[in-house]
Automatic annotation (TrEMBL):
<protein>
    <recommendedName>
        <fullName>Endonuclease/exonuclease/phosphatase domain-containing protein</fullName>
    </recommendedName>
</protein>
<dbReference type="InterPro" id="IPR036691">
    <property type="entry name" value="Endo/exonu/phosph_ase_sf"/>
</dbReference>
């Protein structure tokens, strides 16, 4: 029992080492339940519980449904939460048979999650022991897993395009490519304008009526100017200066 930063009142830390026999494990769960109900505090149970919660937490070893059900019932009855774990997927490794299991857990009560709703734990790399050390992280940002930043792919693609554009500026074909691209964009805009004019012509109440009206007047002025200039000799046209 002691004090924890951000927690009002007492905080209880219980280091657990679960036994191997199934019957002994049930007795440990009952004892932990009694400890939690004996005193009002913010409880944190941590350590090697020597049990998994589902078949996905064990590889190359037999999964015991009774032990898993008893452990899950203990967590549910005590209103505890198994924190999400980052880092290593499994916390126990045995060379003989290449057995992998997730035996270490952090179980916290609701009062702890009320203060640290994004709490998690992190499984570090093994060194001397066959178990991976796990540490408690009050915030999810502290977990060592990589989080995807927004617009990461878009920013990377933009940088690649900018590098290509800078590399292409010194080539003789750069101006031609830019001119061809501008022509394609202009043609697309012109086709869209004529399509809008043809679709929205005769619909004055439609949302695109202003755009259609502008396109129609612009086309009319261009045609009138062309016809008028065709009747004037080339030398007498003022725009040819």
């Amino acid at each position: 029992m002691g004090n924890l930063v951000g927690i009002s009142g007492l905080a209880g830390f219980v280091n657990v080492y679960g036994p191997q026999p199934e019957g002994e494990k049930v007795k440990v769960w009952e004892e932990l339940s009694t400890i939690k109900r004996s005193r009002s505090a913010t409880w944190i149970f941590m350590g090697d519980f020597n049990v998994v919660r589902c078949p996905e937490e064990r590889i190359n070893s037999e999964f015991c449904h009774r032990s898993a059900n008893a452990f899950n019932n203990f967590i549910q009855d005590c209103e505890l939460t198994n924190l999400k774990m980052g880092g290593q997927r499994f916390t126990y490794f045995r060379k003989v048979g290449a057995k992998l299991s997730k035996l270490d857990h952090f179980l916290v009560c609701s009062s702890y999650l009320h203060v640290y709703p994004l709490a998690s734990c992190y499984a570090m790399n093994r060194d001397l022991s066959n178990h991976s050390p796990i540490i408690l992280k009050p915030r999810y940002d502290d977990v060592g897993t990589t989080r995807k930043q927004p617009f990461t792919k878009l920013i990377a693609r933009r940088k690649r395009l900018r590098r290509r554009a800078n590399a292409c500026q010194g080539r003789p074909c750069h101006k031609e490519r830019r001119r061809a691209f501008t022509t394609l964009v202009y043609d697309a805009q012109l086709r869209r304008a004529f399509t809008t004019r043809n679709v929205y012509q005769g619909r004055p109440c439609h949302k695109g009526r202003r755009h259609a009206f502008v396109c129609r007047n612009l086309t009319t002025r261009v045609l009138m100017t062309r016809n008028a200039y065709q009747e004037i000799p080339c030398q007498e046209r003022p725009c040819h200066k």
